[in-house]
Amino acid sequence: MTIAVIRFGGSNCDRDAVQALESIGVDAELVWHEDGLPAEVEGIVLPGGFSYGDYLRAGAMAARSPIMDEVRAAADDGTPVLGICNGAQIGSESSLTPGAFTTNESARFQCEHVHLRVENADTPWTAAYEEGDVIELPIAHGEGRFEVDDDRLEQLEADDRIVFRYCDAEGNVTPEANPNGSKHSVAGVTGDRGDHVAVLMPHPERATLEDLGNTDGAGVLEGFRA
Ligand SMILES: NC(=O)CC[C@H](N)C(=O)O
Questions:
Q1: Domains of the chain (ranges plus CATH)?
Q2: Residue 13 to residue 11: CA distance in whole angstroms
Q3: What's the complex ipTM?
């Protein structure tokens, strides 16, 4: 199985994603966006970083790279796609997933560890966990506040499309445990094409290697094996 980790100008978590995937035994390769998707790709990661310097809006310019037409077509065909942080912003900017990620309530770049509650364990990205599990992952973003109109959010909730919510260490979803002001504390959501497409703002690839002292994120990447 080969997972394509797409590198845009300014991506900076692309090699971390490859290393994290390989650490759990999933083959991964870096793909420069101008080169297009390799023929035999079995999964796609949109990695974190600062594509195009976050100009206009984070993810807005990468979303307009021609490779994103190929990513959408692959997603239509059932290829798993995971967007992480800047990749989540690219995912929402390219209509793979609903809503938008916009400037943190603090108006600052935030780099910290957060707790997440698994809201729906019935997706490839959360099947390694139980519903209600609390995991810890790092965040590092300036534009991570999930925003979506009320009607759409109600529908996402009704359809069980919220995969992770920010919470405290005990799993309580509170305003204090919401690091960026995301609506309904949403940290990750599945795509309109099905739950084989998902994005999340926290970084599972930074919490997968034993050496980093936290492997809570490995289960998310296990989704490529599902
Ligand atoms: N770590 C990242 O992927 C950063 C995302 C984006 N550049 C932001 O600051 O919001």
A1: 2-225 (3.40.50.880)
A2: 6
A3: 0.96
